[in-house]
Amino acid sequence: MIVNYEASKSVRSSKLPPIPEARLWLDEYNGNSSYNLSQGVPIDPPPLLLQQELGKQSVITTNYQYGAISGQPAFKEAFKDDLNRHYNASLSTDNILITPGANAAFYTTILALTQINDTSNIVLQSPFYFNHEMTLSQLSIDVRLLDCRADKAFVPNPKDLEAVIDTNTRAVVLVTPNNPTGVSIPSNVLEECMKICADKHIPLILDETYRSFSEFDRPHNLHTLGLNNLIQLFSFSKDLAIPGLRLGGIIAHEDFIGQCMKVADCYQISPSNISQSAIAPIYDQLNDFKLEQKLSLIEKHKTLKSLIDELGGWSITSSGAYYAFVNYPYNLSSTDVASTLARQFGILTLPGAFFTTDNHSDANNHLRISVANVTKETLLDTKQRWLDFDKYMKEDN
Q1: Which cofactor does it need (predicted)?
Q2: Strands 230-235 and 204-207
């Protein structure tokens, strides 16, 4: 049966979700076992203490009712205290809106900032997080790319940012630690970018989904500049290993949070009560788990580097948190390389082309490898596959 209506032009023209698209390549692999190094998903379950609290909260019937639009007061209080310690800030709970994940935080922020069908544009660093670009595409918002170069480990250049902003720019979006490159953007670079945004009277939207895994003890000092031009996006999916519970947040000036609440009321009404009620009383007790996750990721990055070092001509351009952005030596598109690796050798990665719309971007000769959803031992198990793949590609080309 043929449907007799159609989705909007902007949604139809946006990208397919990249993860399931790439997963189809792995379905064609005929070997005995395959390895998924494509997705940023924590392999470990949440800590036992949190699992127990979730169980307790699941039988409290009031948790199944609507909660506060901006989030539960106790949860916001615990989150605020953590942020103030982490950033040497002086936030209040009025600066916080809890959302069902960081993607929802981004979506809420963009809807609160832009007017559909006007001439607004948003600056994304390239390579970008693909769901950011997909959101803007579906909302018919133009994207301007801040090209980040491989010879600078994909750290953005503030001078380039100043050049890419125009009179229609409504915001600049940076991600640190970055997805897909893994790089943590130094505080001085972020400060320069924020000052440029302030001069242009636009906000810097800083997605800090992976903040617990930053290479810096204090990711930045932006709160010393105030909240007049800063919007931070957060996620609890990664550092607490609860991606299925969908919990994130927006940190911004209280006036902007008030506008975001209008948007949130139209699609979420209120975030999950059970998740917030479980985390709030044990918030600080979960810090050891976060540190364990960070140390585990560091060890897995070391393992991956030792593996890549054995492949002639390969190199890790940047890495950190969940990801490594790896350069290969073949004169082929990243999509061709990634699809061949999956279809014929059973290792799924994502091509750099998934993270840019610029054919000239340095991302195009890279693969994104996730170390998050595999163990160190699993990474070691892939070694011979990588060696066989490299030999095959060099003989064939």
Answers
A1: pyridoxal 5'-phosphate
A2: parallel
**Distance from C-alpha of 210 to C-alpha of 72, rounded to nearest angstrom:** 23
Six-digit token string for 230 = 């800063």
Do 107 and 171 lie in a common domain? yes
**Domain check: are 56 and 28 in the same one?**
no
CA atoms within 13 A on the CB side of 245: 26
Question: Which amino acid, 244?
Answer: G
Please say whether the beta carbons of 322 and 44 come within 8 A: no
For residue 372, what is the DSSP state? T
Q: What's the rounded Cα separation, in Å, for the pair 235 and 247?
A: 6
CATH number where 361 lies: 3.90.1150.10
CA distances to 26, 31, 111, 321 from 19, rounded to whole Å, are 11, 21, 25, 19
Q: Is 297 within the bounds of a domain?
A: yes
Last residue in a domain, options 283, 318, 333? 283
For 88-119, write each residue's pLDDT tens digit.
999 999 999 999 999 999 999 999 999 877 78
Residue 1 domain-assigned?
no
- The reply to whether the predicted model has a pTM over 0.85 is yes
- Give 19-73 pLDDT, tens digit per residue: 899 999 999 999 889 999 999 999 999 999 999 999 999 999 999 999 999 999 9
Helices 383-396 and 287-308, interaxial angle, to 10°?
A: 40
* CATH code at position 110: 3.40.640.10
At 150, list the tokens.
Answer: 């491989």
Same domain, yes or no, for 41 and 53? Answer: no
